[in-house]
Amino acid sequence: MSMYSYLDFEKPIADLDGQIMELKKLSEGENGGVDVAEEVARLEKRSAEALVEVYKKLTPWQKAQVARHPDRPHCQHYVDALFTEFTALAGDRNFAEDLAIIAGFARFEGNPVAVIGQEKGSDTQARLKHNFGMARPEGYRKAVRVMELANRFGIPVVTLVDTAGAYPGIGAEERGQAEAIARSTEMCLNLEVPIVSIVVGEGGSGGAIAIATANHVYMLEHAIYSVISPEGCASILWRDAARAKDAATAMKITAQDLLALKVIDGIIEEPLGGAHRDRAAVMASARKTLTDALGDLSALDGPALKHARREKFLAIGRDLG
Q1: What CATH number did the domain enclosing 194 receive?
Q2: Is residue 13 classed as helix, strand or coil in its secondary structure?
Q3: pLDDT higher for 24 or 320?
Q4: Nearest to 167, CA basis, from 195, 199, 128
Q5: What is the pLDDT of residues 160-193, one digit of tens each?
Q6: Looking at the structure, do residues 159 and 38 belong to the same domain, yes or no?
Q7: For the chain, what is the mean pLDDT?
Q8: Which of 57, 133, 215, 252 has CB 3.0 to 4.6 Å from 163, enough for a Cys bridge?
Q9: Can you tell me the distance from the alpha carbon of 242 to that of 170, in angstroms, rounded to the nearest whole number?
Q10: What is the SS3 assignment for 321?
Q11: 136 & 248 share domain
Q12: What's the count of helices (H) and strands (E) in the chain, helices before strands?
């Protein structure tokens, strides 16, 4: 229990878990012999019930908090758990290496795949190293390089999306950030191999769509996907970032909203309390989703894959009236 970082709305659960820990420490103390099993069992039941109650009615803003949870599994965790023989490629052959994007080739269920994903980092040092998952132009150009290789050799592409957005720094703009994002999106659309994307945490703006223009797009149950962050939207519309909660609701950023709007193709169930509470379970669910998706797409030839992908994105919003 002590390994969890509790979010603000999880305070009732945190309080109960804290009481459980104190009772267990009491029973293990020097004086020992204090029988707390019955009380611990009662509190554990209440904690489990509270967890169910809280997570069955999460607001869009609360889902955004879960999607950004510091302990949530990131791209590297999925790469390590789902793929074998992963070999990363570095650099865009033009300017530099960008560690915000991990890209290379691996095997999935014994078959070759290209893997591209945004890595936020799991601690302060890693977050700085990976620039919090916000890629510069060279990151997207590296992604394009890997996709070109995959297309040349007929290898399916899997992308793992987790970014607040592309890096907005002056240097990135000077080196053609918008053009790099556009080229990456164009490459996704022109691939004649299957491409499957999973939004594992936060899918922000063009920085996400640059590697998520896929035949099948999935989201984890508590992931978010939007054209701008709730805070950014609130700042623009109301000049008040504190209204991010209102923006999150209005923007329809949750997996459930986006499935209803036919922006995504499916939702990957998370363990109760979020992916960070049971990484093995969420990896198993992601593996099954990838297996099924790649299996379905393997029946299509190159032109059919490209046409289906184009039509999928052109169809978004057609039936909304």
Answers
A1: 3.90.226.10
A2: helix
A3: 24
A4: 128
A5: 999 999 999 999 999 999 999 999 999 999 999 9
A6: no
A7: 91
A8: 133
A9: 26
A10: coil
A11: yes
A12: 14, 8
Domain limits at 232?
64-320
Both tokens of residue 18? 């804290």
Note the Cα 251 to chain centre separation in Å.
Answer: 18
Closest CA to 286 of 270, 306, 303: 270
What confidence tier does 2 reach under pLDDT thresholds 50, 70, 90? very low
**Angstrom distances, CA of residue 133 to CA of 119, 186, 223, 295:** 5, 21, 15, 29
Q: Do 179 and 226 reside in the same domain of the chain?
A: yes
The whole-number pLDDT of residue 222 equals 95
Task: Say yes or no: 40 and 85 in one domain.
Answer: no
Lowest mean pLDDT among 31-45, 204-218, 273-287: 31-45
2 part of a folded domain: no
Q: pLDDT for 10-44, tens place per residue?
A: 888 888 888 888 877 777 665 555 667 778 888 88
What percentage of the chain carries pLDDT values higher than 70? 95
Domain match, 107 and 72 both: yes
282 in a domain, yes or no? yes
The string of DSSP letters for 273-305 reads T-GGG-HHHHHHHHHHHHHHHHHHHTTS-HHHH
Whether 158 is in a domain gets the answer yes
Q: Is residue 1 part of a domain?
A: no
